[in-house]
Amino acid sequence: MRNKIRHEGIIDSIEEGCVHVRILQTSACAACKVAGYCNAAEAKEKIVDVFCDTVAKQLTKGQQVVVSTTGDIAARALLWAFGIPFILMVAVLVIVLWQTGDEGVAALSGLLTLVPYYGLLYLLRHRMRRQMAFTIESYN
């Protein structure tokens, strides 16, 4: 397995087969000693869904856990969320500009291409969720 991405978090709620873990996502420079004086450092609170049937029965709300995923899964998620739509949008922009010569129509076509793409991602979200998932690595 490649490098792991780990986050400590606290269980927010537990549903049937799904544990909702609240994590604090920080930027790379948030741990810096001068981060309080810099506007670049930021931290956001996120809820991560961890799908696990066996471990969920042993966990309780408020318990501290460590969730993890691999770098491969993170890269795949970035590709689906940003890489493919960017390539699709630019391709449509260039093709429509070449066919019509109208920059406004080309720009609008490129942007409108994203609507069915993200709609398709939304429809496939349950299938993708099984492939790109967090796991609970350790718990107290």
Give a brief rundown of this model.
This protein is of the alpha+beta class.
Label this structure with key terms.
140 residues; five-stranded antiparallel β-sheet; alpha+beta; single chain; 4 helices
Largest sheet strand order = 3-2-1-4-5
Taking all Cα atoms into account, the compactness measure Rg is: 20 Å
Low-confidence stretches: none
* Chain-averaged pLDDT: 80
As a percent range, the share of strand residues is 25-35%
Largest sheet: 5 strands, antiparallel
| Cα separation of the termini | 24 Å
SSE succession: EEEEHHHHE
What structural category arises from helix and sheet content? alpha+beta
Shape: elongated
Number of helices: 4
Helical amount: 40-55%
Give a count of the beta strands, DSSP E runs of length 2 or more: 5
Q: What does this entry look like structurally?
A:
The chain has 140 residues and is of the alpha+beta class. It is 41% helix and 30% strand. It has helices at 71-100, 103-112, 114-123, 125-131; strands spanning 4-15, 18-26, 43-51, 64-70, 135-139. It has a 5-stranded antiparallel sheet with strand order 3-2-1-4-5. Helix 1 runs antiparallel to helix 2 and helix 1 packs antiparallel against helix 3 (114-123). The protein is elongated. The relative contact order is 0.19.
